[in-house]
Automatic annotation (TrEMBL):
Its cofactor is FAD. It comes from the Bacteria. Keywords: FAD, Flavoprotein, Monooxygenase, NADP, Oxidoreductase. InterPro entries: FAD-binding_Monooxygenases, Flavin_mOase-like. Belongs to the FAD-binding monooxygenase family. It comes from Pseudonocardia oceani. This is NAD(P)/FAD-dependent oxidoreductase. The keyword Oxidoreductase applies.
Length: 539
């Protein structure tokens, strides 16, 4: 860029990419510290993942009281109507935040960032967006989330389908009416489970194409009464206070006991109790060794399997949805929360196609053909997930000091010190990044807690007149080793999940989240910060 051109572009202290929870937190906090900050957002309104994922049934899998910011002036005037709010209510929450915090005036909507390069001379990122705009910023803070790049599998003939075909993560804002239609859903992850429940109710015929069964847990949905709302408000501050002490940033944690050290009766009673609580308690509030020990995991799996079989009429269908011999351990692939998912398969209008027995051969103009025959469809839903964690970052042409892009640097696997920065890309600090705790953590918790670490770091540097920070190669290599070591004693590597980068053909198999839990992560961050951010080269 010539000097003349650069003189005309806006210059900021911080440019944030993405207006979800993480981006909004950065905007609000950094602005309040007096910095010039803008957010570039690809969507037309705030909400991040809740803008794009407005498919029928899209719903929060964390309890509503935890699925919001912890500032008292924000939570005291806000109520979700359900324990697990749906996408439209979460959008209303974002509108509420916008009104309270006056966010939109500093957000450029419909501005998808396409490229960024570091100007070493001026210690600034030069960032360009698809709407033609360019901006310069000392710090670039991508808050692109884990799921901003939808994955559409290369199924032969997909483009020839003449009905409506939508990926859950690119759902039309105007909605899609499934009523009376012949609907097919490919994929049974969290998105698939949610859309299947709605389609089973509305569609004339629903065909579910399942490759791997979802080991889904009981949601325990409730419409909240005024008394429950009051109870939530009374406990709100206490809930937030313990978030930094728990593995997943929730208000509960693993039980400090092995599933194998209690009697079978005690174990059953505990499983019954935490199952009854609903939500993720059966996952992150269970015996401490369920995600680490095969025998312990088997006990949880068998409990879960029996619960599922009770609800399915046809044992052959039950075996496909909850096999007697587990396909992978329970909880090492992200579980979903369901309300009537398993009952849906008892309905006459719902058919399950097991892709392990009958793989998809092609999509035709009129439907999907598997080895078992063709299913005619009006609507095909691709609930096939995302190029998770890294996809949002590598989709942009971000070019560091050596001239290589982040995509090229991470072609054979990620390295990201503390999950926030990677060598060769100075002054670029990402939230929800690879090998950070975010993927195992309640979203708003991490947006605030990890977000505050980034805010503090930027503030520390700028206040002390230091304008360049970069992860050190040795530090990021050591972090990658640390993450790999944490995976070894766990069962996470036993499933082909997005946690392991294993949902995308050709992607390096590697743990993409920090599996040491939030408290350990925070301790490691504080150790580094106390030594003037050891592991980062600061000039
Ligand atoms: O994606 P997924 P998702 N042929 O990757 C299948 C979060 N989330 O969008 O398991 C046939 O989990 C694939 O099969 P398999 C949450 O963190 C949160 O559902 O690889 N099938 C799988 O069944 C979640 O974990 C919420 O064998 C193919 C599915 O597609 C994350 O988002 C709601 C295929 C993809 O499942 C991602 O969930 C929704 C192919 N070629 C999502 N390729 C809430 O909390 C893929 N599949 C509200």
């Amino acid at each position: 860029m010539s000097q003349t051109q650069s003189d005309t572009v806006e210059e900021l202290d911080v440019l944030v990419i993405g207006a979800g929870f993480a981006g909004i937190y950065q905007l609000d906090r950094l602005r309040s510290l007096g910095y010039s900050v803008k957010v570039y957002e690809a969507g037309s309104r705030i909400g991040g993942i809740w803008y794009w994922n407005c498919y029928p049934g899209a719903r929060v899998d964390s309890d509503g009281p935890m699925y919001q910011f912890s500032r008292e002036d924000l939570w005291k005037d806000w109520e979700y109507s359900e324990r697990f709010p749906d996408w439209s209510e979460v959008r209303r929450y974002f509108d509420y935040l916008d009104e309270k915090l006056d966010l939109s005036k500093d957000i450029r909507f419909d501005a998808r960032v396409t490229s960024a390069e570091f100007d070493e001379e001026r210690k600034q990122w030069v960032v360009r967006a698809a709407d033609g705009s360019t901006v310069r910023a000392t710090f670039l803070v991508p808050c692109t989330g884990f799921g901003s790049k939808p994955y559409i599998p290369p199924i032969p003939g997909l483009e020839s389908f003449r009905g409506e075909c939508h990926h859950t993560g690119l759902w039309p804002q105007s909605g899609v009416d499934l009523t009376g239609k012949r609907v097919g859903v490919i994929g049974t992850g969290a998105s698939g489970v949610q859309v299947i429940q709605e389609a089973a109710r509305d569609a004339a015929e629903l065909t579910v194409f399942q490759r791997t069964p979802n080991l889904a847990f009981r949601m325990g949905q409730q419409t909240l009464t005024p008394e429950q709302q009051q109870e939530i408000k009374d406990g709100q501050a206490a809930r937030y206070a313990i978030r930094t002490t728990t593995f997943g940033g929730f208000d509960y944690d693993f039980l400090p006991v092995s599933a194998l050290d209690v009697t079978p009766e005690e174990r059953e009673a505990t499983y019954e109790r935490i199952w009854g609580m609903g939500g993720f308690t059966f996952w992150l509030g269970t015996f401490q060794d369920v995600l680490f020990d095969t025998k312990a995991n088997d006990t949880a799996y068998e409990f879960w399997r029996k619960k599922v079989w009770e609800r399915i009429d046809d044992p052959a269908v039950a075996e496909k949805l909850a096999p007697v011999v587990p396909i992978h351990p329970l909880g090492v692939k992200r579980p979903s929360l369901e309300q009537n998912y398993y009952e849906a398969y008892n309905q006459d209008n719902v058919t399950l196609v097991d892709l392990r027995e009958s793989p998809i051969e092609e999509v035709t103009a009129t439907g999907v053909r598997t080895a078992a025959g063709e299913v005619e469809l009006d609507v095909l839903v691709l609930a096939t997930g995302f190029d998770s964690v890294t996809g949002g970052l590598t989709a942009m042409d971000i070019r560091g000091t050596g001239g290589i892009t982040m995509r090229e640097k991470w072609a054979d696997g990620v390295s990201a010190y503390m999950g926030v920065a990677t060598a060769g890309f100075p002054n670029l600090l990402f939230l929800y990044g690879p090998q950070s705790p975010s993927g195992f953590c309640n979203g708003p918790t991490c947006a605030e807690i990890q977000g505050e670490l980034i805010v503090r770091m930027i503030d520390d540097l700028l206040r002390s007149g230091r304008r360049r920070v970069e992860a050190e190669v040795e530090a990021e290599n050591a972090w990658r080793e640390h993450v790999a070591e944490l995976v070894v004693p766990s069962l996470f590597d036993r499933a082909d999940s997005w946690y392991m980068g294993a949902n995308i053909p050709g992607k390096t198999r590697q743990m993409l989240n920090y599996p040491g839990g939030l408290p350990t992560y925070l301790t490691k961050w504080e150790e580094s910060a106390a030594k003037d951010y050891a592991g980062f080269a600061i000039t």
